[in-house]
Design goal:
Elements lengths: L2 H20 L4 H8 L3 H8 L7 H11 L3 H5 L8 H8 L2 H4 L9 H10 L1 H17 L4 H15 L5 H13 L10 H12 L2 E3 L14 E4 L4 E4 L5 H16 L17 H18 L2 H12 L8 H9 L3 H6 L3 H6 L4 E9 L4 E10 L19 H11 L5 E10 L5 E10 L6 E10 L2 H6 L9 E5 L19 H19 L1
Parallel strand pairs: 1-3, 6-9
Antiparallel strand pairs: 2-3, 4-5, 4-8, 6-7, 7-8
Length: 489
């Protein structure tokens, strides 16, 4: 059954439910009037059945409405917002099945309080317009929630990656070159790799990869280094080996049509990371590192070189921490520094086990310059001869008991010359993390008090501050006003 018919069934169910309850009829009473069974009527109201015309006519007579009114796709009154939502593609595109939720159940909840939920839906629509939020944003939010719910570890994808590694005899514990992956693409899937054509189009200079599936050509940006090329080719192999259907053909997702495209893109990316950094090999490396009593300052650099992997790929592969080390309270942040206007932007944010500080960051405010992901980018800007740097910091969030061990890599972008990028992984220092990471109390690890944004920070002597604490000041004004009113009364 296609999406349109699913919507028709749900709308009919809402109408029948509304008309039946309006007339004060039970299922059994309506069953006697129409000759339809109570269970069948229940299936109609749940949006699971759409009767044939003769039964619809009988139902319309029993509910004392015209056939046209009953079968119209229009919902009126306080259920009108729900009708618009059902007829749109958006509600049907929500990946409810990933979370074990039936669309009909959502509609039933909405139908129970149509006026209240209708107002709520209208508010969401208005908010989306205000903040220019599109369907794509919801798709990515849903994907992020799906990752967080599963601690970003997906056994079925791990198994497929292991099958691929064994089938093509990929090296374990050593770098996998882009040339090797290119050979597999050509010999097993009939694809060729073009590393010249993208550079001939000025508008495509920042696009890392484009796949022409019909012609079986993978276009790679020639400015990518070998490890970046390997990741892009591994991703293309993920699409092919996992037999993923709907997909984006560019590494830069321009216009997303369905959630399936977003999900498949994630699966292909996950697959690529798995084959580039072998799980068993990395587990051995991390076990040895965590047992060290003193911090090895170049461990992350060495492990990155060992697998010839970018920090982004390396930190993604740290998804083994919850499963194998019990370190579940983790966040990932990816920040960009736009050098031409000296502005910072938080590009990616992922939280495992719970929402961590910082989270839900507002792009209209100024991120704390004490964040390691931000300060490392500033260090990189001040040292033009430095290609990249790895740093570690114990970050204590002001006003909370939360302290994190934060690992950050900041690097210069090869494809986008005016943008530097940092990738950070933060681990909440609870009792389990402190007992697992033996070097955690090494005095050489920098410690800093940090906050979320300058606008929300009460520190008075912060040398890194770039904006006045406007939110704190407004809160103080409001509290003072409340106090004054109470005293006046």
């Amino acid at each position: 059954m296609d999406i349109k018919n699913n919507s028709q069934k749900l709308i009919l169910g809402l109408k029948v439910r509304h008309l039946r309850t309006k007339k004060g009829l039970s299922f059994s009473e309506l069953a006697k009037i129409t000759g339809l069974s109570g269970s069948y009527l229940n299936e109609i109201e749940k949006g699971k059945k759409y009767p044939k015309p003769d039964k619809l006519k009988t139902l319309a007579i029993g509910l004392e409405v015209s056939f046209e009114e009953l079968t119209s796709s229009k919902l009126t009154g306080n259920m009108a917002p729900l009708g618009a939502l059902l007829k749109s593609n958006f509600l049907n595109e929500l990946p409810l099945d990933l979370f074990g939720i039936e669309l009909a159940k959502v509609v039933e909840i909405i139908a129970n309080s149509p006026a209240k939920v209708g107002a709520f839906i209208s508010a969401l629509v208005e908010l989306s317009r205000t903040y220019q939020m599109q369907e794509t944003n919801f798709y990515f939010l849903a994907l992020r929630a799906y990752q967080e719910m599963n601690l970003n570890y997906f056994p079925e994808l791990e198994i497929e990656a292991e099958k691929f590694i064994k089938k093509y005899k990929l090296p374990i514990g050593s770098p996998i070159s882009s040339k090797l992956l290119e050979t597999i693409l050509h010999n097993s899937f009939g694809f060729t790799v073009d590393k010249k054509s993208l550079s001939k189009k000025t508008a495509l200079k920042d696009v890392r990869c484009i796949a022409n599936v019909k012609k079986k050509i993978i276009y790679l940006n020639p400015n990518l280094n070998d490890m970046q090329q390997a990741y892009q080719l591994g991703k293309q192999l993920g699409f092919l080996f996992l037999n993923l259907g709907k997909r984006q053909y560019s590494s830069t997702m321009i216009k997303v049509n369905t959630f399936e495209e977003v999900l498949n893109n994630f699966k292909a990316s996950y697959f690529s990371v798995c084959i580039l950094i072998n799980k068993e090999s990395l587990l051995s490396d991390l076990t040895a590192w965590f047992k060290q009593k003193q911090l090895d300052p170049i461990f992350l650099l060495n492990i990155s070189k060992k697998y010839r992997a970018t920090s982004s790929v390396l930190f993604q592969r740290f998804n083994v921490l919850p499963q194998y080390f019990g370190i579940q309270k983790i966040f990932y942040l990816q920040a960009k520094h736009y050098l031409d206007r000296d502005a910072f932007d938080l590009e990616k944010e992922l939280h495992l086990s719970k929402k961590h500080v910082p989270h839900g960051n507002l792009i209209a405010e100024h991120y704390c310059r004490r964040w390691l992901g931000i300060s490392s980018l500033s260090t990189l800007q001040k040292n033009p001869d430095l290609p990249e740097l790895y740093q570690m910091q114990r970050s204590k969030y002001i006003g909370t008991e939360d302290e994190y061990l934060v690992l950050t890599n900041a690097r210069r972008s090869s494809a986008q010359q005016n943008i530097n990028t940092s990738v950070s992984i933060g681990m909440l220092l609870d009792d389990n993390a402190k007992s697992t990471i033996q070097f955690i109390n090494d005095p050489n690890i920098m410690r800093r008090d940090v906050n979320i944004t300058c606008e929300r920070c009460p520190l008075e002597d912060c040398k890194e501050r770039v904006k006045a604490p406007l939110i704190i000041e407004k809160l103080a004004e409001r509290q003072n006003l409340e106090k004054t009113i109470k005293e006046f009364l």
